Amino acid sequence: MYEKTFPNKRFRHTLNFLKKHVSVSETIFDLGVPNPFSKIMEENGYQVKNTKGEDLDKDQTALQMESYTVFTAFEIFEHLLNPYTVLENVTCDKLVISIPLRLWFSPAYRSKTDMWDRHYHEFEDWQLDWLLEKTGWTITAREKFTHPVKKLGFRPLLRYFTPRYYIVFAEKLND
Predict the structure, then answer these.
(1) In degrees to the nearest 10, what's the CA dihedral of 115, 134, 145, 159?
(2) Angle at Cα 128 formed by Cα 91 and Cα 147, nearest 5°?
(3) Which InterPro entries match (predicted)?
(4) Could you give the CA distance from residue 5 to residue 15 in angstroms, rounded to a whole number?
């Protein structure tokens, strides 16, 4: 269904990971406005709610007001100044988060035309792990995957071998 092209390869990998850890009977609260991947989740039987475009660094009200059993954030934490506060306000016990990994051979993404489409954080895997641990989450599954591009050059070659994305499933265990 989803070809091996970007973003389809990323979407396919993310959907397969989600299916391993989240039942379609659960309600997902997906951080960010409706997007191509939230539509893919719905097409695969998931009930998905999204945020409305509010500034999540300042306003986490939606996280506290919505009813959901799984929290997801697919390639959005890197855009936030304060993902710690977002995680503190999640009200369910399961989450799936994916992030682009910081690459030593490529600078942080910064759009020259859109002041919001920038990466404030480009994480290494241990940094996301630590953020989750500090906010009370226990990672029970994790994967890294590559982002090959069909171009010639040194960076495209490195992207073939170097993981670009990191996805985790975590649970909040009651004390």
Answers:
(1) 50
(2) 115
(3) SAM-dependent_MTases_sf (IPR029063)
(4) 15
Alpha carbons within 13 A on the beta-carbon side of 61: 6
Q: Would the pTM count as exceeding 0.90?
A: no
Question: Count of alpha carbons within 13 Å of 117, Cβ hemisphere only?
Answer: 4
Domains of the chain, CATH where assigned? 8-171 (3.40.50.150)
Going from the C-alpha of 65 to that of each of 33, 34, 62, 85, 150, the distances in angstroms are 16, 18, 5, 15, 44
Give CA separation, 1 vs 4, 6, 48, 134, in Å.
10, 14, 20, 38
Residue 11's identity, in one-letter code, is F
Kindly give, in sequence order, each residue whose CB lies less than 8 Å from that of residue 43, ignoring residues fewer than 6 positions away: none
Q: What are the tens digits of pLDDT across the range 114-140? A: 555 655 667 889 989 999 999 999 999
State which amino acid sits at residue 30: D
pLDDT at 156: 60
Question: Would you call 132 helix, strand, or coil by DSSP?
Answer: helix
